[in-house]
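Project outcomes to date are best conveyed with an example. Our students and postdoctoral researchers have been running inverse folding experiments weekly, and each run begins with a structure described purely in tokens. The record below, which covers 431 residues, was selected by the lab manager from last quarter's runs and is presented without edits.
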């Protein structure tokens, strides 16, 4: 029986530091604990990440704790802070843009650990055989994750034929669960690269196994940006020097970094941000059209492309308002954009209607146009038909038959298969 539920919020700079406790008691004595540790830089992401943690089923005799590290100097430094702050046996280190959709995540993770005390760490995605050149982010061939990049949504499959839990050599840092505390090597890795591979190798140095579980459906959603590789090569060389004994496979992929492109795209992003503040959407369209003539991608520019479509779509359809009407700054617009995406995601994940009540009211009142909602569903929902069906009932309830007919037309023309599936580079090569 749940006897205590406590939420405590402590404001640190611009990010709230949350400690969420869900305590299960037996004769007044608390039993095991799982701590979720998050390095936070964005409150909107952080709030949503915590929302999903709070919705997880809490097994009996388990205490759940959330520790957020604000403005960490590096991932290793931040995770060391979190590790030292909690006495939990089980710790889950995850990105702020990772949303746990498996409701039994806590039970499933603990079950894996309880079956084998030699398992030190669990990840959602990992690799068997790490390349000698340490280009590890392309080496994943085990696991899966629902992935939402700035311009596309898909299910990333790293092991198409995985049917059981597998021991791997290293895991991706999007989520790393442990049952033993081993210091993170902040003496070696002072940025935001290789913390995950390093910790994997440190686990193995200490005699522990690393496991990626079999997931019939991915346990997490990752709202990821395109990787910034500015410091990757420096840290790659450190990894080779420190962990050569774990880098045994023939190199399959080369490290490629386009410095000039990254610098130019960042400058373009700053220019477009200023233009969004001025609502100069026609100028923005011209600049983004030129950007899309290139093959490479920038996360901010892809997001601005979506925002452009939301801003001009209603105008071109002769609606009296647009998605961003009433908002003065680009930060306010970005906030609305992400919160709308997150509400649609809650609907798709089957969360209680009370958790998106205001969003529903805004849609029914026409404060968010159907064109905007449809665009976001088609681009960023995995089960688009499910979300459209729910939205359709809302429009039907308020008598908007014209919108209902539009949804029915979309549904008839829509591909009725499941989520778009993509294979990791290594998995595709091994097929």
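After processing, the design step wrote out the following sequence:
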């Amino acid at each position: 029986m749940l006897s205590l539920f406590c939420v405590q919020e402590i404001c640190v700079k611009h990010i709230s530091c949350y400690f969420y406790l869900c305590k299960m008691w037996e004769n007044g004595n608390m039993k095991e604990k799982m701590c979720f540790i998050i390095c936070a830089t964005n409150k909107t992401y952080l709030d949503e990440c915590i929302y999903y943690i709070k919705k997880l089923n809490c097994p009996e005799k388990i205490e759940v704790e959330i520790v957020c590290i604000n403005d960490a100097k590096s991932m290793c430094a931040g995770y060391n802070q979190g590790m030292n702050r909690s006495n939990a046996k089980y710790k889950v280190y995850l990105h702020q843009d990772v949303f746990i959709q498996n409701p039994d995540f806590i039970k499933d993770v603990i079950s894996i650990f309880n079956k084998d005390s030699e398992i030190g760490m669990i990840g959602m995605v990992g690799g068997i055989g790490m390349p000698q050149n340490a280009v590890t982010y392309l080496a994943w061939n085990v696991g899966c994750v629902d992935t939402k990049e700035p311009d596309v949504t898909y299910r990333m499959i790293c092991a198409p034929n995985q049917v059981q839990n597998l021991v791997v050599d290293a895991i991706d840092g999007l989520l790393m669960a442990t049952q033993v505390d081993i210091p993170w090597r902040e003496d070696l890795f002072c940025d935001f690269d290789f913390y995950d591979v390093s910790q994997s190798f440190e686990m193995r140095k200490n005699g522990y196994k690393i496991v990626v579980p079999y997931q019939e459906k991915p346990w997490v959603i990752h709202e990821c940006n395109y990787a910034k590789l500015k410091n990757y090569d420096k840290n790659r060389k450190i990894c080779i020097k420190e962990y050569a004994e774990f880098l045994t496979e023939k190199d399959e992929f080369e490290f490629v970094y386009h410095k000039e492109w990254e610098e130019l795209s960042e400058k373009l992003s700053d220019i477009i941000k200023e233009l969004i503040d001025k609502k100069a959407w026609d100028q923005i369209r011209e600049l983004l059209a030129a950007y899309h003539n290139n093959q490479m991608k920038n996360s901010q520019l892809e997001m601005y492309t979506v925002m452009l479509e939301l801003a001009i779509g209603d105008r071109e359809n002769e609606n009296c308002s647009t998605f961003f009407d009433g908002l003065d700054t680009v930060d306010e617009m970005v906030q609305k954009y992400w919160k709308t995406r997150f509400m649609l995601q809650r609907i798709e994940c089957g969360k209680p209607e009370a958790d998106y009540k205001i969003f529903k009211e805004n849609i029914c009142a026409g404060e968010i146009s159907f064109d905007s909602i449809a665009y976001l569903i088609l681009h960023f929902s995995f089960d688009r038909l499910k979300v459209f069906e729910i939205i359709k009932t809302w429009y039907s309830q308020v008598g908007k038959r014209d919108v209902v007919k539009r949804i029915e037309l979309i549904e008839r023309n829509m591909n009725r298969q499941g989520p778009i599936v993509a294979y990791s580079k290594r998995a595709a090569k091994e097929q």
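Residues 1-31 have pLDDT under 50 and may be disordered. The two ends are 48 Å apart (CA to CA). The training component of this project remains on track.
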